[in-house]
C-alpha cells in the first residue's frame, strides 16, 4: 500500500512544485513584493537613498532594515527579470529543503509516504503559492525556522549557536520569528539567544558603516525616522490582524482592545500548560506546539498579520503526526483551512457577504486554532486534575496505553492466484513484504 501511495503522490507533488514555481511565480501578479526589493538593491549599488518611499500609497513598500538590504545586495547585479527568477528559484529550493528537514525532525524519511504528502500539502497552500507569486522571501525564512528547531532539539550544545544564527538571519530581514526567542529562553538555552542578537547587529552595523561604497546604505537614519514608524503603525489593508480588520470594518476601539486581550490570555494559559506539563516530557511537541501559539497570537494581536505568514506554522501543523497532538480534531482543521486555503470566497450576487468571508477567513482561522489549542489543553488539565494524575502529565491515559501496546502480529501473506514458476523478482517481493510486516508504522515511516 505504501508503494502505491508513493507512486501516486510523488508525481503530483513534483508537478505542484513545478507549477507554482515555474508557471504561477514567473507569470507574477499585480502584487509584486520583489519590485521594491530590486529598487532598493539597485539604489544601494548606485549610492542613492533607499528609505524615501511615499507610504500614502498601498503598493508594496520596502521595509527591510539596512542589514536586510545588505543580504539582498547580490540581486542588484543582475537584470530585473533574471534577478526575480533566481529569487524565486532560491525560495523554492529553500521550501523543499525545509520540507526535508521537517520530515527528519519528526523522524520520517524520503522513502515514506509522508514525504510526497507533505510536499504536496505545502505547495497547495495559499501561503506558499503567494510567497512565490508575489516574490517574497518567506521561503528562506521557513527554512531557517526549521533549522532553528532542528539545532535546538538535537541535543548538541554546539548546534545551539547555529540555531541562534539561523533565527538571527531571519531577524536581519524581518522580525517575523522574533516571538520564537521565548522558547530557548524558557528552555534555559542561552547560546541561541547570544547569536540571535549578535547576527542582526553585525549585519546592520556593517551596512551603515561599511568602507565599501556599494555595500553602504546612504540614508540609514530614514529607516529609523520614516520606515520604522510605518512598520509600527496599523494599516487597514492587506492586514489580517484583529486591529487591522477592526479598523477596516469600523469596530469600536474598546472592542478591538478587548479581543486582543482575550487572545493574549488564551495564549498565555496555553503556553503555561505546555511549559508546565510537556517541556521536560516531550520537547518536540512542546517546542513546535508552543511556536504555533506564539506566532499566531503575535499576528492576531500586533499591528500586522498577513496571510502568507501562515507558512511559518508548518512545524506546528506537523505535530498532527504525534499521538498527543492538539490538532487531531475537526475544529482545528476548519481553522487551518481558513488560513491555508487558496479558495476565494468573493460572491458576485452578495458582495458584502463575500468580502467579509474573503477578508476575514484568515483571521477567523487563526483565532479558531488558538481557541482549539487552549480548549484541548485546558480539558486535558481538568481531567488529569480530577483523576489526581497531574504528576504524570496531562495526556489522557489511553495515549500512554497506546504507546506501550505492542503492535499486532501481521498474518503471513496468502497466495490469491494459482502458483506459478518462481523467479528472482519473487524473492525480492517476498523480502519487501516481510520487511514491511516486521516494522509497525512502515506505511508512514
TrEMBL record:
Keywords: Cell membrane, Membrane, Transferase, Transmembrane, Transmembrane helix. It comes from the Bacteria. GO terms for cellular component: plasma membrane. GO terms for molecular function: hexosyltransferase activity. It is found in: Cell membrane. Belongs to the glycosyltransferase 87 family. This is Uncharacterized protein.
Amino acid at each position: 500500500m505504501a508503494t502505491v501511495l508513493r507512486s501516486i503522490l510523488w508525481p503530483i507533488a513534483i508537478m505542484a512544485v513545478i507549477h507554482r514555481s515555474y508557471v504561477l511565480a514567473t507569470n507574477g501578479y499585480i502584487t509584486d513584493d520583489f519590485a521594491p526589493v530590486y529598487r532598493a538593491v539597485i539604489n544601494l549599488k548606485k549610492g542613492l537613498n533607499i528609505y524615501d518611499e511615499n507610504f500614502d500609497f498601498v503598493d508594496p513598500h520596502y521595509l527591510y532594515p539596512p542589514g536586510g538590504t545588505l543580504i539582498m545586495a547580490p540581486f542588484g547585479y543582475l537584470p530585473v527579470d533574471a534577478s526575480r527568477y533566481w529569487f524565486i528559484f532560491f525560495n523554492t529550493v529553500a521550501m523543499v529543503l525545509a520540507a526535508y528537514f521537517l520530515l527528519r525532525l519528526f523522524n520520517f524519511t524520503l522513502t515514506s509516504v509522508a514525504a510526497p504528502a507533505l510536499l504536496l500539502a505545502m505547495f497547495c497552500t495559499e501561503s506558499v503559492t503567494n510567497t512565490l507569486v508575489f516574490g517574497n522571501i518567506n521561503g528562506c525564512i521557513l527554512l531557517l525556522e526549521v533549522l532553528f528547531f532542528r539545532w535546538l532539539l538535537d541535543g548538541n550544545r554546539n548546534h545551539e549557536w547555529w540555531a541562534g544564527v539561523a533565527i538571527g538571519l531571519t531577524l536581519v530581514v524581518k522580525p517575523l520569528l522574533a516571538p520564537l526567542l521565548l522558547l530557548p529562553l524558557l528552555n534555559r538555552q542561552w547560546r541561541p539567544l547570544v547569536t540571535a542578537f549578535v547576527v542582526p547587529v553585525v549585519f546592520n552595523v556593517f551596512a551603515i558603516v561599511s568602507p565599501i561604497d556599494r555595500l553602504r546604505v546612504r540614508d540609514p537614519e530614514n529607516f529609523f525616522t520614516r520606515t520604522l514608524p510605518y512598520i509600527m503603525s496599523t494599516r487597514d489593508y492587506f492586514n489580517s490582524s484583529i486591529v487591522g480588520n477592526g479598523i477596516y470594518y469600523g469596530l469600536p476601539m474598546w472592542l478591538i482592545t478587548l479581543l486582543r486581550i482575550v487572545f493574549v490570555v488564551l495564549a498565555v494559559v496555553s503556553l503555561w500548560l505546555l511549559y508546565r506539563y510537556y517541556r521536560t516530557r516531550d520537547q518536540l511537541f512542546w517546542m513546535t506546539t508552543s511556536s504555533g501559539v506564539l506566532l499566531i497570537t503575535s499576528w492576531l494581536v500586533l499591528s500586522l498579520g498577513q496571510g502568507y505568514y501562515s507558512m511559518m506554522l508548518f512545524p506546528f501543523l506537523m505535530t498532527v503526526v504525534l499521538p498527543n497532538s492538539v490538532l487531531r480534531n475537526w475544529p482545528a482543521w476548519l481553522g487551518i483551512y481558513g488560513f491555508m486555503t487558496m479558495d476565494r470566497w468573493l460572491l458576485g450576487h452578495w458582495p458584502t457577504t463575500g468580502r467579509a468571508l474573503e477578508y476575514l477567513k484568515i483571521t477567523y482561522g487563526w483565532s479558531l486554532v488558538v481557541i482549539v489549542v487552549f480548549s484541548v489543553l485546558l480539558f486535558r488539565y481538568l481531567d488529569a486534575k480530577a483523576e489526581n494524575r497531574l504528576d504524570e502529565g496531562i495526556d489522557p491515559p489511553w495515549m500512554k496505553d497506546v504507546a506501550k501496546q505492542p503492535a499486532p502480529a501481521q498474518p503471513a501473506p496468502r497466495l490469491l492466484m494459482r502458483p506459478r514458476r518462481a523467479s528472482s523478482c519473487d524473492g525480492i517481493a517476498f523480502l519487501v513484504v516481510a520487511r514491511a510486516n516486521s516494522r509497525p508504522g512502515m506505511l508512514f515511516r
